[in-house]
Amino acid sequence: MIAEQNKQIILASKHKDEFISNLSHEVRTPLNAIIGYTNLLMQKLDDPNDIDALNHILLSSKNLLHILNDILDLKKIEAGKAELKNISFDLPQTIKNSFETLRIHAQKKGLKYILHIDDLIPTYVKGDPSKLNQVLLNLLGNALKFTSEGKVTLNVKLIECDTKKCRVNFSITDTGIGINKDNLCRIFNSFTQENKSVSTQFGGTGLGLTISQNIIALMGGEINVNSTPNVGTEFSFTIRLEKTKTSIIYEDDITSILIKDIEKIKIIYADDLELNRLLLAKQLKSWNKNLQIKTVKNGKELIEVCKTSNFDIILTDIKMPIMDGIEATKKIREFNKTIPIIGISANAVASDIKSYFDCGMSDYLLKPYEFNELLIKIAKLLNLEFSSVKKQKFNSSKV
């Protein structure tokens, strides 16, 4: 009886994993097209009202992607597989980028939106900037969601620092509806909000605080909350970061990419969806009208064309009918072991991503992707000289 129950538990867990994997793929695929075509339109339109509307589309798309990432992170946490990167980054700029992402929400609600960053905080540190961004977006998003008037403030201050490490405190305060004392202990539970009326009125998955608590714990910190109903709420956490003197450039921080001799490069892209093929071709041609790109519908066509024509780099979707990207890559490696191959997929499951590299792919790109990220990968794999223009730094201010 116990053995049968364990078998059912394992089977249910497998079905859950498959469902989440399929969910990720089916949501990321249309999001890639929405975000990609929206960015293309923004380059061509001049009317501020049109640009504002497109910004709303982008923001809504990225919010949906944010929810999806929360679900995937919860799966990793439950499996004990959640990991942190340890890379150098610009801490103040990362904080400002996270803060500015949600400014439009504050403006829409007429709220004061305030950022204070301690001048003593080191510029460059080592840690996981994407996870820190995720926590800040969750906490700031909640503060904005539950505040109808007044202000939302992010205050970042240095607690202690020596030559190697520092401790930084983050405090997000609002003048919103607050949380009942009896419910404070429940808000960090998965899929839980204060009560059903909160979920009905304000929406949300109830995953943000659970994810944030676990990420902060991985960073060696602890999240605290103080709240008074009808007055406001404060979430705060302190994390340890390693000091460093340099930083890497992130694709999200880049306005444009310039690649030397890119016109000489021939690219072939395989994807069964015409929408995706048209999007990538339009993106590349919009960026450089002289770029040479050919598109095919599946892995079988990809192999046939690559046997008769020379290309410098292959881009291929993973999930395709007739022949998928993995099988096509294996067969291409039988007659061409050196051509760079970038797999492009909406599947974010780590074990599957590993299989892309195992079959012979050179790199991998997760949908929806930033176009600049694709350009950088192409340049690096082809050893092309490239330069980037970083976005202007945001000003810390209030609405």
Describe the structure.
This protein has 399 residues and is α/β, with parallel strands linked by helices. Helices cover 46% and strands 22% of the residues. The strands form 3 sheets. Strands 1, 2, 3, 4, 5, 6 and 7 form a 7-stranded mixed beta sheet that branches. The chain has a 5-stranded parallel beta sheet with strand order 10-9-11-12-13, sandwiched between helices. It has a two-stranded antiparallel ribbon with strand order 8-14.
Layout of helices and strands:
Layout: H1 2-44, H2 48-78, E1 87-90, H3 91-101, H4 103-109, E2 112-117, E3 124-127, H5 129-145, E4 151-161, E5 165-174, H6 196-202, H7 208-218, E6 223-228, E7 232-243, E8 254-259, E9 266-270, H8 274-287, E10 292-296, H9 299-308, E11 313-317, H10 325-335, E12 341-345, H11 350-358, E13 363-366, H12 371-381, E14 386-390
Parallel strand pairs: 2-4, 9-10, 9-11, 11-12, 12-13
Antiparallel strand pairs: 1-3, 3-7, 4-5, 5-7, 6-7, 8-14
Helix pairs in contact: 1-2, 1-8, 2-7, 3-5, 5-7, 9-10
Short description:
The chain has 399 residues and is α/β, with parallel strands linked by helices. The chain has 3 domains: 2-78, Helix Hairpins, CATH 1.10.287; 87-243, Histidine kinase-like ATPase, C-terminal domain (Heat Shock Protein 90); 255-390, Response regulator (Rossmann fold).
